[in-house]
Amino acid sequence: MKVFIDRQKVNAHATWSNVASVGGLMLLLASVVLPLFLPSWANFAYVFMIVGMGSAMIGIYFANRWVRKPRPEESLAKALKSFDDHYRLYHYPSLPCDHLLLTPNGVVILEVFNLSGSFSYKQGRWKEAMTIGRALRYIVEEHIGDPVLTARQVEKELDRRFKKEFGSEVTIPIKSVVAFTHAAVDLDVDESPIPICKADKLKKQVALNAPRLTTEQYEKIARLLESLTTQ
């Protein structure tokens, strides 16, 4: 399997999250030390404390998303490693999604979450079992939202791009999958419009029940997605 990643985007977000985290902690330290040496500046200490706390929490949130191991691309590579070079995995393209898989039969949108805990999808609604640990981490971790709705929106955007590339009369098969990569996740799914699975089941779920793309179609899609990922 060939893998393409916007490494510049990953590095930029990782650097920014580290700067925000360290900067926030420095401001928190300043809010404690400043009144000891400059009592007249005590009012500024409260400002430093508020700004520092906010900056540190934002930095930790983005660090959980862009720095914490294993990275989503690492988990996906492991789950799909047995695919040959006819499968191409794109990370962080300039699209409203983070991960795409090009297969010989079409394109798969991958909505990926690296969260522990228990999640359920029933009657079109997501629910999360709130534990003490998750509650403590809630502010600094990503939220599930509605990945099914997000995936449907990305499908429309991709379809628009492909029709522009190939013509309105050509339809490229597009499928969406929601994947949870954390080892400590429990899923309870009932009648989902798109597959929802753990990473170890992902390989089976990305299969498209569609005719094989022509060589021309496949290469055009590959060039388009590569240009959106490595520009």
Report what the structure shows.
The protein has 231 residues and is of the alpha/beta class. The protein has two domains: 2-66; 72-230, no CATH class. Helices cover 48% and strands 21% of the residues. It is built from seven helices and nine strands; from the N terminus they run βαααβββββααβββαα. The chain has helices spanning 7-37, 42-66, 72-79, 132-137, 147-166, 202-205, 215-230, and strands at residues 2-5, 88-91, 99-103, 106-113, 117-122, 125-129, 174-180, 185-190, 196-198. Strands 1-2-3-4-7-9 form a six-stranded mixed β-sheet, with helices on both faces. Strands 6-5-8 form a three-stranded mixed β-sheet, with no helix packed on it. β5 and β6 (125-129) form a beta hairpin. α1 runs antiparallel to α2 (42-66). The longest helix is centred in the first third of the chain and has 31 residues, at 7-37.
| Main sheet properties | 6 strands, mixed
List the strand order in the largest sheet.
Answer: 1-2-3-4-7-9
- Class derived from helix and strand content: alpha/beta
* Unreliable runs: none
**What is the alpha-carbon Rg in Å?**
21 Å
**Shape call:** elongated
Q: How much strand?
A: 15-25%
The average pLDDT score comes to: 89
Q: What is the count of DSSP helices, taking H or I runs of 4+ residues?
A: 7
Count the beta strands.
9
Distance, first to last CA: 21 Å
Order of helices and strands: EHHHEEEEEHHEEEHH
The quaternary organization reads as single chain
Q: What number of structural domains do the residues give?
A: 2
The helix content, as a percent range, equals 40-55%
